[in-house]
User: What shape does this take?
Amino acid sequence: MHHPKTALDLQISASLKEKLYQNSIVKSYKAGDVIMNENSRINAIPIIAKGVLSIFRTEEDGREILLYYLQAGESCVMSFLGGLHNENCRIKASVEEDAEILFLPIDKFSLFMKEYPQWLEYIFQLYHKRFEELLEIIDAISFKKVDERLWMLLNKKREVSGKMILNVSHEQLANELGTARVVVSRLLKLLEEDGKLKLGRNKITLR
Assistant: This one.
């Protein structure tokens, strides 16, 4: 069966992509949908064919912090080991932009590791990228001020969406940064005064 070209084609060969579609359950999601929660069972590995996912770490008091984005062509490394070792999920994954996701069952995931060298290479590449991004997060939290982290987050959103206009609320940005909404609102106003962006209702236009 022929499948439309997606960013997944840049990561894996056509033959491996076909095998993934044959062995996975394909589902579509809208922005805002949550596909994984902390402490939920991991029965399948999500592979993003289209769209963008946001990956969060949630505290017991309900506070969240954004760890990284999963873009089309990528998968969730946090679910790899959890699934293989029969452990519960340790992150929350929500849909940032409408997505098509392949869910590869855990038993098939293990089989692919044994039978397809390119699959293993794909996993190692993802681990490397996620490790680098988590180091950036640790560096930002430890050494950067909230205004710098906010500007970094806005530019990351522009990068993953390919859009200069971001449909995002001040509260959402505050949650992703692990800070208060009033702090984000004040900093956004300063950025607007500096001419770096224009604020609208649940909308930010970058310049």
